[in-house]
Amino acid sequence: MIKSLTAAAITALSMATAAPAVAGGPVVVELFTSQGCSSCPPADELLGEIAKRNDIIALSMHVDYWDYLGWVDEFASPENTTRQRGYARQAQSTMIYTPQMVVAGQDHIIGTKGMELASKIDVHKSKADSVSLKVKRDASGKLSIAAHRTGDVPSKMQVQVIRYIAEQKVDIRRGENAGRTITYHNVVESVTPIGTWNGDADLKVKADAPGDYPAVVLIQDGPFGAILAAARVE
């Protein structure tokens, strides 16, 4: 059942790749997952597929509330769990679960629902961004972030820098996935708020992003609201 579900989900996302040209920038998809969750590997595989697309920024957010079952997820952090809980509060929900995907900071779906994911991505692709965002990285690793508003925006947007590991294979020896080797994609290593912006004047700011990890800049309605713009640098 898990294999067929994953195959159907991947087919749905592959079909979505042939959609018309996008109106806005890349759509951010965050997967809340855990190495200790037996239902998560199909969603992890699905995220790996959409991570190949230029019109999507796929991020794997490993949470820590499965660690007590006998396998500590080396990628998990309480900050990722806090982020998931923040999204739940924003959606007026009292429940968090894995695997869960959050699309553009707004739509919450079960992480294995490929057809629903494809539909949500297409909806957000068709919308024009209210913020234009450009990011460059210099030789020292610093990011130059430039943005200006192109439509109506909230009064207190948060600018965040996310660092991630592009791919990592893990041999899981205990817990619900014991004996499995799973490849994880775009594993979030850190989420760093660097300031707020109200959109009245153009944003021009620099941020540290040392090391070899790729980086993503998000401009979001507060820490857990709609993602208004996103850009990635390798």
Walkthrough of the structure:
With 234 residues, the protein is an alpha+beta fold. The protein has a single domain (2-233), classed as Glutaredoxin. Helices cover 21% and strands 37% of the residues. It contains 4 helices and 11 strands; from the N terminus they run H-E-H-E-H-E-E-H-E-E-E-E-E-E-E. It has helices at residues 2-16, 41-50, 78-90, 114-125, and strands at residues 27-33, 56-62, 100-103, 107-110, 131-137, 143-149, 157-171, 181-197, 203-207, 215-221, 227-233. The strands form 3 sheets. A 4-stranded mixed β-sheet has the order 2-1-3-4, with helices on both faces. Helix 1 packs parallel to helix 2 and helix 1 runs parallel beside helix 4 (114-125). The relative contact order is 0.20. Mean pLDDT is 91; it is low at 17-22.
Radius of gyration: 17 Å
Strand order of the largest sheet: 2-1-3-4
Give the helix proportion (percent range): 10-25%
Overall CATH class: Alpha Beta
Into how many domains do the coordinates divide? 1
Rounded to the nearest angstrom, the distance between the terminal CA atoms is 36 Å
What proportion strand? 35-45%
